[in-house]
Amino acid sequence: MFPFDIHPPSEALRPAIQDKIDNLNKPLGSLGRLETLAMQVCLIQQTLTPSLAHPCHLLFGGDHGIERENVSVSPREVTWQQMVNFAHGGGGVNMFCRQHGFHLRIVDVGVDHDLHDCEGIIDRKIAPGTRNFLHEAAMDEAQADKAIAVGVEMADAARDEGCRVLCIGEMGIANTSPSSIWMSLMCRIPLIECIGAGAGLDQPGIQHKYDVLSTATANFFQQHRKFTKWDIVRYFGGFEMVAAIGAMLRAAEHHMVILVDGFIMTACALAAMQLYHDVKPYMVFTHCGDESGHQRMLSAMHTEPLLSLGLRLGEGTGALCAFPIIDSAVRMVNEMNNFSNAHITKYF
């Protein structure tokens, strides 16, 4: 696997940051979560004057072999159709990126359709979808390494443009299936508690999904008497998911703020943390969606999301919606006056 050099942010500045926050002209602690967010961003960037300059959004697309087992109500072709729609500016992710000033990169890592001539889509296709993990590993070592490298490349490109905050999303029909298995195996939660409706399965569909995924998991254990977290990632993951992990890990190396979206991206964050625990302080968990198991996974990771809007669109839309809250936290620490300058009696 691609090596990373990730360390938690230095705590040396914490007292000075806390002093600055506590001396803003407000009651002590009165801005609540904004204050903890401001502290986190200041520590990530190692400064008393943080910046969310040039926010970027990466959207990785890829198809999944497990989709052939009818574990999703949406057909496979929706992946490429939506990718084209994104390239034309018509998706939810496009609207929110425009609203909040994010530079959007749309990356084909493994879509089962020829998109190389589609303007606005970056072609990094590894294969036309992963293999069916019901029977074999979704990707081999070389493919997994390529997916990580795509994420690294895109995070580097964002950094080179001056990006300080990176948001990541996905497009891949059936990608709640590998996410559920990652959650189950990495958090040691029974699989049945990790599986939900995805794009809209009914109860019999959810039962079928469970039957398929439990069989796939049993097959994995038969093939692997000993295994690592990386084995779990590449056996079940999608190209778009592993690319997202690579982008998260590289962003942490660059001391960027990482916005984590819904169920699939939380699963990717979980996998990234399993591989490199020190990536977590760079992550802001932005939204808890409607997918069954999402709150359970967040709780297992000891994280609290900023929003709970009932979203289950994916694409990174929940994270984009949460961005103004993080922006408010940064504006607070940079723009609010303090007691001394405002000539207000400090009463605590």
Which tags fit this structure?
348 residues; alpha/beta; six-stranded parallel β-sheet; globular
Largest sheet: 6 strands, parallel
Structural class: alpha/beta
Beta strand count:
6
Radius of gyration: 20 Å
Strand order of the largest sheet: 3-2-1-4-5-6
Judging from the principal axes of the Cα atoms, what is the shape? globular
Strand-and-helix sequence, N→C? HHEHHEEHEHHHHEHEHHH
End-to-end CA span: 52 Å
Kindly state the percentage of residues in helix: 40-55%
- Low-confidence segments, given as residue ranges, are none
Percent range for β-strand residues: 5-15%
Question: What integer is the average pLDDT?
Answer: 95
Number of helices: 13
Write the layout of secondary structure elements.
Layout lengths: L13 H9 L9 H14 L10 E7 L14 H11 L4 H9 L2 E8 L10 E3 L17 H20 L4 E7 L4 H12 L15 H21 L5 H8 L2 H15 L3 E4 L2 H13 L7 E3 L8 H7 L16 H19 L3 H4 L6
Question: Can you summarize this structure?
Answer:
This protein has helices spanning 14-22, 32-45, 77-87, 92-100, 141-160, 176-187, 203-223, 229-236, 239-253, 263-275, 294-300, 317-335, 339-342; strands at residues 56-62, 103-110, 121-123, 165-171, 257-260, 283-285. It has 348 residues and is α/β, with parallel strands linked by helices.
